[in-house]
Amino acid sequence: MLGLTAMSTLAAVMTGKGAGAIATITLFGSEAESILNKIFKPKTKPSCSFVAGKILLGEIHNENGPVDEVLIGCRKRNYFTIHCHGNPLIVADIMKLLQKHNAEPVAADRILAEVSGESNSIVIEAKIAVARAKTLEATRIIMYQANKGLSQKAAGWMNNSDLKKIQEQAEEILAHSAAIRPLLFGAKIVIAGPPNSGKSTLLNCLAGKQKAIVTELQGTTRDWITAECVLGRVYAEIIDTAGINENLYSNNEAIEKTAQQNAKELLATADLVLLVLDASVQAEAGLELFAEMLAGKKTLTILNKTDLPARFDHAQLPQNLNNTVNISAKSATGCDKLIHSIEQIFGITKFYRQSCVCFTGRQEQLLRQIIAAKSKETAVSAISELLNGRL
């Protein structure tokens, strides 16, 4: 369990960041009502009763006077929602005031888990993970683990005396989990290539909107530009980098050198690199440089500008760059095939939605303990922790 003690009181902003008409703050815990009695002044009566189901109009006050007019929703004993104006400064002032009165500021998903009253740790983790999920499919996969999936599998292990079978199933779960990580948590995809190969045009094509400035000049992108989008089944952060060119990298101009270095650092942390080459030119300089730089990286080479006469010789490509797809980013021709290729590289094209997977580091660690267990008793201890452990 999350471990809310008898004296803990939590406060969380439940609405998104930024300005809005209304913001909601949840206050939950043993001292919640006591805190509200100190800072809330009702409009109707000198005193108020926080009865479940009641809505109270009044003002939040600090030592200097009113902070904001609010509505207090009484969900149940020591569980309240404060609806205030959506100005971020007002929200911040109320949160500081709650903290001053010993409420612990936490993320919204922590509150969601605490108020659920759930004892199954996997179910609680699922509720937290769903609040962060980027796609509907990821939400469905995670909730399947709570309702059936991992939760049901772990419960069945408690009554299974065959340790070897349990360990084989745990290994299978870990394998499935690794395969669908880009589907559940997204992937960092970096677009790289020589200057003027169409990298920014590709970013705009995949993102569906103008994110990067596109011109005929080499080296237009001097810093990286990002976009977030869904590519088939993959939620991706796509990063367009400066065109990599050894001549620019050795240039004495500080901005160019920094842009080149930043691009190389981003490549090192990418889950997938889209190497964009101009298929309308006879040869691309520096292919060996890219082959060396991308050794050991998941890489898909994109032969771009197929709307122009083809002059590029595919046989020039080093072996680790010869997984290719032909597209015209300008006209979006071939982008469907590109997206399918991305799914294939991540290995999720045939993933069955109702597979059993783990989706937190805690779950993965406990599954590894089960696999390494030398006795059924040791495995049962880890299984019990998986189902009902502290988060």
Report on this model:
By secondary structure, the chain is α/β, with parallel strands linked by helices. The protein has three domains: 9-115, 2-Layer Sandwich (Gyrase A, domain 2), CATH 3.30.1360.120; 128-162 and 354-388, no CATH class; 184-346, P-loop containing nucleotide triphosphate hydrolases (Rossmann fold, 3-Layer(aba) Sandwich), CATH 3.40.50. 40% of the residues lie in helices and 21% in strands. The protein has 15 helices and 13 strands. The protein has helices spanning 32-39, 88-100, 108-116, 121-132, 136-147, 149-157, 163-179, 181-185, 199-207, 246-249, 254-269, 287-293, 335-346, 361-372, 376-388; strands at 9-13, 22-29, 40-42, 55-62, 65-76, 79-85, 104-105, 187-192, 225-231, 234-240, 272-278, 299-304, 324-326. The strands form two sheets. Strands 3-4-5-6-2-1-7 form a seven-stranded mixed sheet, sandwiched between helices. The chain has a six-stranded mixed sheet with strand order 9-10-8-11-12-13, with helices on both faces. Strand 5 (65-76) and strand 6 form a beta hairpin. Helix 6 (149-157) runs antiparallel to helix 15. It starts with 8 loop residues before the first strand and ends with a helix. The relative contact order is 0.12.
What level of helicity do the residues show? 40-55%
Radius of gyration: 27 Å
Strand content: 15-25%
Number of helices: 15
Number of strands: 13
Whole-number mean pLDDT: 85
Strand order in the largest sheet: 3-4-5-6-2-1-7
CATH superfamily of the largest domain: P-loop containing nucleotide triphosphate hydrolases
> Which overall shape is indicated by the principal axes computed on the Cα atoms?
flat
Following the backbone from N to C, one meets helices and strands in this order, namely: EEHEEEEHEHHHHHHEHEEHHEHEEHHH
